[in-house]
Write a structure and sequence with these properties.
The protein is α+β, with helices and mostly antiparallel strands. Among the domains are: about 150 residues, Methyltransferase, Cobalt-precorrin-4 Transmethylase, Domain 2; about 40 residues. It is built from 19 helices and eight strands. The strands form three sheets. A four-stranded mixed sheet has the order 1-2-4-3, with helices on both faces. A two-stranded antiparallel ribbon has the order 5-6. Strands 7-8 form a two-stranded antiparallel sheet. Strand 5 and strand 6 form a beta hairpin. The longest helix is centred in the middle third of the chain and has 32 residues. The two termini are about 45 Å apart.
């Protein structure tokens, strides 16, 4: 199975807010998808050509350019006093379209950090896979002796991409990535056409006897699964649901047993499971939703039996090639993405169901208390959050889940913005922390981990305020009383403060949440 993205840089989703800027600066290093520049003046032909080169290169994967900072993301003041009007999105796109063919999706914003002006530019991936230059990019340079020469950075029909934080002419690896992206898009298109033909055959009156219609299965692209799920709901077809789940269970076990096949097929199948769960969640089929979660639990258990769980539990470091942690993480990040949808749909029982699962191998060993904390621990020990470009930097589980939610349309059926998607996943995390403590009746770190600590508390505080004031929500999520909730919030907040220091993120509960903790915290817990 492919490892998670090695980059902690958020997806190039067009978000150019102050919070996004701070998150990019907190990385303190450049990546293929992130370029720091001390100064950028588009009144200069040189800067315009150099920017066009970077914009073209970033259209393969997408990425961000931050101007006004040094190589570690510290504001320098070099952009103070610079004319920033050329960075107006419309003017910027117009300038870049002089050089580049095809669609060009650019967002930009002039912001301030540490008292200095900074320009943030977001370049979204090109739907065609890459961008071709339409004209040469040239500018004059002055030699030490005073003579001038023309510097040519690119020519018509050149293609650039990002390699080792540099914008360079595309290499074999780059071409393979572009081809793979185009192939994947075409493969999904063909699968959709096949699924549409199958549906048309089934829905045509008299085309097939009822008994000969194909059983529901996962032999379709993930974005076709919601249509199948909706048809099952309309028909109230519990038998069809069971047929589909049995088909998924067989496929998953086959892919796990044959890792050579599973490397490519299992992630796609997990996407399909996720979309079926999202459909049942969105249309109020709680019992069917629970059955899909049970299917994910089965896959989690199939990836590693009790002996594997025990062996890896004693290991402080796990080989990245070990299959079980890869599968566990792939499931956990999709569960988090589903959790974001559950938060937006206000399906609080679903939040509890997604949090409290304990697959049989974990229960047999007896140490773990829920699958999310276990998956996080094992993936971390196997270095699946580590980045390939900067030692010590890690991508977070919430970032991985957000990427899944943005990638799978079924997880955004309610039409959230990219920022709302991220917020809901972070809010699921804080609720999951509290639910895990409530379910285990213990405050031990093996029960919970505040992934949300990477973000400021205003991402999650609203949902906690709702939790302490909404009796219905609290009864759906928790079994304990106000004192238990206050203790859980205190413990989670304390740990989040510690973790948040690393990311300039969470730094404590405030307002009504802080007051609730102070008023309800049991005396023996203070």
């Amino acid at each position: 199975m492919p490892l998670p993205s090695p980059s902690p840089v958020p997806p190039a989703d067009g978000v150019v807010t102050q919070e996004r800027l701070e998150a990019l600066l907190a990385l303190r290093a450049e990546y293929d998808e992130l370029d720091y520049k001390r100064k950028l003046e588009l009144s200069s032909q040189r800067d315009e050509v150099e920017l066009a080169k970077d914009v073209a290169a970033m259209q393969v994967k997408g990425g961000f350019i931050v101007a006004g900072v040094d190589g570690t993301g510290v504001a320098t003041g070099d952009m103070d006093g610079v004319d920033t009007s050329p960075f107006d999105p419309a003017r910027l796109v117009s300038k870049m379209q002089r050089y580049l063919d095809g669609p060009l999706l650019i967002a930009s914003n002039v912001l301030e950090t540490a008292g200095h002006t900074v320009v943030l530019i977001c370049i979204s991936p090109n739907p065609n896979g890459c961008a071709f230059f339409r004209i040469s990019g040239e500018y004059e340079i002055t030699r030490p002796d005073g003579s001038t020469d023309t510097k040519t950075k690119f020519r018509p029909d050149d293609v650039f991409w990002r390699e080792s934080t540099r914008s360079v002419r595309i290499t074999k690896d780059g071409l393979e990535e572009v081809i793979e992206r185009r192939f994947a898009a075409r493969r999904d298109e063909l699968l959709r056409e096949w699924a549409a033909a199958q549906r048309a055959l089934v829905e045509t009156p008299g085309a097939q006897p009822e008994a000969s219609r194909p059983s529901p299965s996962f032999a379709i692209p993930s974005d076709e699964v919601p249509d199948t799920g909706l048809q099952l709901i309309r028909d109230d077809d519990a038998v069809g649901v069971q047929q589909m789940l049995d088909d998924g269970r067989r496929r998953a076990r086959t892919y796990i047993e044959d890792e050579a096949i599973g490397v490519d097929q299992l992630p796609t199948l997990l996407d399909a499971f996720t979309c079926l769960a999202a459909t049942f969640l969105s249309y109020g089929k709680a019992d069917w939703f629970d059955q899909v979660v049970a299917l994910l639990v089965d896959v989690y258990a199939a990836a590693g039996n009790a002996a594997v769980v025990e062996r890896l539990g004693y290991s402080t470091q796990i080989s990245p090639s070990e299959m079980a942690p890869r599968v566990w993480l792939a499931i956990a990040q999709r569960v988090f993405a589903l959790g974001g949808l559950a938060v937006r749909r206000e399906s609080w029982p679903a939040v509890r169901v997604l949090t409290t699962q304990l697959p049989p191998p974990l229960a047999h060993v007896g140490y773990e208390r829920n699958w999310l904390r276990h998956a996080l621990t094992m993936a971390s020990r196997a270095s699946h959050f580590a980045t390939s470009t900067e030692p010590g930097q890690e991508i977070g589980l919430i970032d991985l889940a957000r990427d899944d939610a943005l990638r799978l349309r079924c997880l955004r059926s309610d039409g959230p913005s990219d920022e709302e998607t991220l917020t809901s996943v972070a809010q699921f995390d804080v609720l999951a922390n509290v639910v895990a403590i409530d379910d285990a009746q213990m405050h031990d770190p093996r029960v919970f981990y505040p992934n949300f600590a990477r973000f400021r508390q205003d991402r999650v505080e609203a949902i906690v305020e709702r939790l302490i004031t909404d009796p219905g929500m609290r009864s759906d999520l928790l079994r304990g009383d106000a004192g238990d909730l206050a203790a859980a919030l205190a413990v989670v907040g304390r740990q989040a403060e510690i973790e948040g220091q690393r990311y300039r993120g969470f730094h404590g509960w405030y307002g009504s949440v802080s007051q609730f903790i102070a008023e309800n915290l049991p005396p023996d817990f203070r």
